[in-house]
Amino acid sequence: MMSQQPEAPPPLVALEGVTKRFPGVVANDRISLSIRAGEVQALLGENGAGKSTLISLLAGMQQPDEGRILVEGRPVRLGSPREALRLGIGTVYQHSTLVPSLTVLENLILGAPWWRRLDRAGTRARLAEITAKLGVSLPENAVLGRLSLGEQQLVEIVKALWLGERLLILDEATSMLTPKGVEDLRAVVGRLREAGIAVLFITHKLSEALAFGDSISVLKAGRLVGGLSVAELRALGEQEALDCIVDMMFGTRGEQPAAEAARRLGEAGPTILEVEGLSVAAGPMEPQVREVGFQLHAGEILGIAGVDGNGQKQLAEALAGQRAATAGTIRLEGRPIQAAGVPARQRAGLRYVTDDRLGEGTIGAFPVSLNLLLKRIGTPPFWRGGVEQPEEIDRHARALIERHDVRTPGPATPIGRLSGGNIQKALLGRELDDRPKVVVYNKPTYGLDLSNIRLARAAIREQAAQGVATVLISTDLDEILELSDRIGVMLRGRLVGVVANDAEARRRIGELMIGSGAQA
Amino acid sequence: MSGEAQQGAQPDAAERLTSPARVPSGGGDLARRLAQALLPIVLALVVGALLLALLGRDPLAFYGDIVRRGLLSPLGLQESITRSAPLLLLGAGLIVAFRSGLWNLGVDGQFLLAAVFAAAMAPPLAAALPVWLALLLTLAAAFAIGALWSALPALLKAGYGINEIVTTLMMSFLGVSLANVLVKLPFNDPATTVPQTATLAAADRLPRLFGTTVNLGIVIALVAILAVHWLMTRTAFGLKLRVVGANPRAAVHAGLPVARLTLAAFGLSAGLAGLAGGVEILGVWGNMRADWNPGYGLLVIPLVFLARFHGVAVIGFVFFFAVLSIGGETAARRADLPNYFNLFLVGLILVFMALTEWLGQRWQQRRET
């Protein structure tokens, strides 16, 4: 049957009420969106908003539990990545999926059936066809690993369009690119638009969504919370669009949790921690922490908000002593400690609860008892003259297990066998043991289920009530608003502002997080 | 495990939401580990027997010869024990490295280089000093030479994270070649026609025990491996090394001096390999010939894995291997087979070891789901 409305053909690709659940999480909750030919739609969302799940549904890696996906108006089943590619839906992932030691041409041949001869001439022709459409040229015989990251990304794009050219999904496509590379990518996206290909541009950066997108959709906690259509976006000025989206992302609905009102500014206690001009060297692909400074009083909770990857982890590690600072001072109760190592800071009462519980916080194969003493190896009474005292270690473990209600068969059980919530309880027990003065939490509830989130937040609040000066790093703004007295925002390695946790906080933090409030 | 009963003991409504730990029952743990260690050996012997039968040899006679010559005859037993000494010291060195997460694959070079220095030092020292002091100094020097030969890979690993598998292997080739050059040039004994070092008088060697051919080396080796086992499992230093080995990022998180611990582990591991070379020269040979390179190091590696880095278990496996190699020489000769047949048996053990490990893991996974 022919379409009844010739002026409005069905969208190229559409999602209708798509839901995807994982144990304990609704990753995508009744999402409906549509993309037309020649439209670049920016999909904006924080980490954990459900962007990756949405991609994997469109790429055929996973199937929705409810709802359907339509291609040119017809419902389709994307049972495998190959089926998605055949329907012309290609994905360029954030991390390369190509083989660096093969040439460009060989990488493109890779997807062909294994029983066929390598069709170099055909591959070359198809490559020429696509690159012509993109307005670029690629050295087909160059080894991929020798190309710039921008060129490698082009190869990814070509590969994604190889079997068909309807929808191209770009996942955080600018994260590896230089500013020049970003500009080139914009040109390529422009060509795709002219060629009538739809582009779904996935990003967590608002500025990019505005720069690339003809329309914008905002994903938050698995739901599509709003968006601007092509027409709406065109009608609005840049500042208006920005305000509108900040509103969708961070909300100004004034639903203040009860605990928030109960918090008061903790100026009462003495200053415990002073950080001045702290700079931290960056590893490859890491933001550099620059000139961070703040003061922290006893019993006060300083929330540090920000989009993930703006230097929060580096700052936390520098405070903990496991990463060297290049400049600045850290004073604990007036004494400079920036030169001290982890064990000395630990003894002085500065504790760090890492977000990477399995990667660095614990050793999965080691018993719970030793993991509880990981930062105190060799100290009495657990070791005497360097020799371990099994009874002392066991007694210490049993006490902490009971006090923090760690569900484990016993102290000798390898900690990796425990559930995530229990590992976190053990970690909290380790760091909060023995009168802490300052505790730095990095994403303390990340990956936990609801009941454990509540327990962890209660522990943080209770410690602060007992006078512990607290730095709470989190990407969960609600968590920060619920617990903090003051809130700072990290952006590109700098602490761009510290605001009091009052009724205006949510909006001001949202502005600081995307950089628009920095000058204000 | 003892704590299992506790879990059900405190039912709490709020806590029922949190998932309990999944832990397999601890019963039969020792039996399982024993089976996992011995099964590969049994399977290897069975397959070896099949092959012997195919070759027209009597497998029972072959294995009987191994046991009779390597274990039951007094002289063979003494030889097996003597052979165990350098293997145990190498095993001790490898336990330190492997438990620290370091692949010290250069033990052969460390062993041989220490051996050549021991062989060159011992005769002049014995002439100038009391014998016990000369022996002690020589053994200390052997330890130091071995440790020194690992310094470059250790520094590269600690400072730049350069893969020690490659560097230790390369240093091993260099060490073996350098040992050969040293025997032929500066340390050569001009009084002999074959290139070798001056010979240490039998009276100046490591003392023999209770009128047997077994020398003090086995005592040194047993003390060393038990001490290493205790060090790695019971002391703070050993635990720090194991933390670095098990999860280097956790070591950084805990503030451990990872670079310094890496250097210490390398030094201890290679030093023990060097000590093995010294003990073998001072206890058995008295000199070093240019063509002597027993290649014990790479033979011990599979044994250490078979024992899962457990010092006491290494003693058992090393002795088994010593019996196999001493008895196997005779058995192979009598069965008119090349001596390599014994290496074939060791290879089979390794293959079956990997296989049982894999099956054991699959079995464990299936039980947990």
Considering the chains and any ligands shown, give keywords for the structure.
heterodimer, A: 520 residues, alpha/beta, Rossmann fold, 3 domains, six-stranded mixed sheet, 19 helices, 25% strand, globular, B: 369 residues, mainly alpha, 15 helices, 73% helix
Main sheet record of chain B:
none
Low-confidence stretches of chain A: 1-5, 252-262
Provide the gyration radius of chain B in Å: 23 Å
- Biggest sheet features of chain A: 6 strands, mixed
Distance between the termini of chain A: 58 Å
Which term fits the overall shape of chain B?
A: globular
Oligomer: heterodimer
- Strand content of chain A is 15-25%
User: What share of the residues of chain B lie within helices?
Assistant: over 70%
How would you state the average pLDDT of chain A, rounded? 85
For the secondary structure, the number of strands of chain B is 0
Describe the structure.
The complex is a heterodimer of chains A (520) and B (369). Residues 1-5 and 252-262 of chain A have low confidence and may be disordered. Chain A is globular, with a radius of gyration of 26 Å. In chain A, a hairpin with a 2-residue loop joins strand 14 (325-332) and strand 15 (335-336). In chain A, helix 9 (238-250) packs across helix 19 (505-513) and helix 16 (420-432) runs parallel beside helix 17 (450-465). Chain A folds into three domains: 13-250, Rossmann fold, CATH 3.40.50.300; 258-349 and 436-513, Rossmann fold; 367-434, no CATH class. Chain A is an alpha/beta fold. Chain A has a six-stranded mixed β-sheet with strand order 6-7-8-3-9-10, sandwiched between helices. In chain A, strands 16-19-20-13-21-22 form a six-stranded mixed β-sheet, with helices on both faces. Chain A is built from 19 helices and 22 strands. In chain B, helix 13 crosses helix 14 (311-334). Chain B has a domain at 77-294. Helices cover 73% and strands 0% of the residues of chain B. Mean pLDDT of chain B is 86; it is low at 1-27. Chain B is an all-alpha fold. Classes of the chains: A alpha/beta (520), B mainly alpha (369). At the A-B interface, helix 12, helix 13, strand 18 and helix 17 of A face helix 1, helix 10 and helix 11 of B.
